Amino acid sequence: MLRSMYSGIGAMRNFQTKLDVIGNNIANVNTYGFKKGRTIFKDLMSQTISGASGPNAGRGGTNPKQVGLGSQLAAIDTVHTQGSLQTTGRVLDLAISGDGFFVVGDASGNNRMYTRAGNFYLDSQGYIVNADGQYLLGTGNVRLQVAPDAKSLSIGADGTVNIVNASGNLQPIGTIQLAKFANNDGLEKAGNNLFRETTNSGTPTTGAPGANGTGTIMSGTLEMSNVDLAEEFTEMIVAQRGFQANTRIITTSDEILQELVNLKK
């Protein structure tokens, strides 16, 4: 069988993966805090027909002769660039300007996950939670609770959560913590706008916003997806044409094989 046919089949499979990633990016164009994916290819092994030889007294050197055997998937990156900020005017809509992730977890402060989606809410007990009911954790991995008789709530750029209590006095109830990783690209997407720590992301450094290289918090603002529709549609066209070209390779290889079979006639 022709090597070109197997190269075309492998490339078609890779372009299908690329289209899958592009489709997921477009599907999440309006998802708060979403970070787009990017597909990277690399060449597969090459078959060496003849190796290189160095020059000698009577003849110069020759270069190796190799035939490539197709492409393979090198990586599917998560691009952690800053998304555009949208003003909402809602106090519990939070955006991070700069590096870092919000930390959410269970009631004991364990099972921690990380997110850039800052749409938070209050539950029936006054705790700040995300849309799935996970608690927003403050410094020390403690939950942040707003008293039911609080007259107002405000959140500063340094993560300090303040309320005006029943007596009309300003009262801090805690500080939102942010987590920073040595390698954001090493984080694993866990669904529900959440990221999970992995062995290649490194252990997070947590603290108040603005510390340890983290960004600041902007209350009344949400970070939008960093998906660029124009870029995604361009990549979609490139993937479609690449897929189409490789189908032609398979068709042409098949025609050549047919001519070889017909030699017997």
UniProtKB/TrEMBL annotation:
<keyword id="KW-0975">Bacterial flagellum</keyword>
<dbReference type="InterPro" id="IPR037925">
    <property type="entry name" value="FlgE/F/G-like"/>
</dbReference>
<dbReference type="GO" id="GO:0005829">
    <property type="term" value="C:cytosol"/>
</dbReference>
<protein>
    <submittedName>
        <fullName>Flagellar basal-body rod protein FlgG</fullName>
    </submittedName>
</protein>
<comment type="similarity">
    <text>Belongs to the flagella basal body rod proteins family.</text>
</comment>
<dbReference type="InterPro" id="IPR012836">
    <property type="entry name" value="FlgF"/>
</dbReference>
<keyword id="KW-0282">Flagellum</keyword>
<dbReference type="Pfam" id="PF00460">
    <property type="entry name" value="Flg_bb_rod"/>
</dbReference>
<keyword id="KW-0966">Cell projection</keyword>
<dbReference type="Pfam" id="PF06429">
    <property type="entry name" value="Flg_bbr_C"/>
</dbReference>
<dbReference type="GO" id="GO:0030694">
    <property type="term" value="C:bacterial-type flagellum basal body, rod"/>
</dbReference>
<feature type="domain" description="Flagellar basal-body/hook protein C-terminal">
    <location>
        <begin position="218"/>
        <end position="263"/>
    </location>
</feature>
<feature type="domain" description="Flagellar hook protein FlgE/F/G-like D1">
    <location>
        <begin position="95"/>
        <end position="162"/>
    </location>
</feature>
<dbReference type="GO" id="GO:0071978">
    <property type="term" value="P:bacterial-type flagellum-dependent swarming motility"/>
</dbReference>
<feature type="domain" description="Flagellar basal body rod protein N-terminal">
    <location>
        <begin position="5"/>
        <end position="35"/>
    </location>
</feature>
<dbReference type="InterPro" id="IPR010930">
    <property type="entry name" value="Flg_bb/hook_C_dom"/>
</dbReference>
<dbReference type="InterPro" id="IPR001444">
    <property type="entry name" value="Flag_bb_rod_N"/>
</dbReference>
<dbReference type="Pfam" id="PF22692">
    <property type="entry name" value="LlgE_F_G_D1"/>
</dbReference>
<dbReference type="InterPro" id="IPR020013">
    <property type="entry name" value="Flagellar_FlgE/F/G"/>
</dbReference>
<dbReference type="GO" id="GO:0009424">
    <property type="term" value="C:bacterial-type flagellum hook"/>
</dbReference>
<keyword id="KW-0969">Cilium</keyword>
<dbReference type="InterPro" id="IPR053967">
    <property type="entry name" value="LlgE_F_G-like_D1"/>
</dbReference>
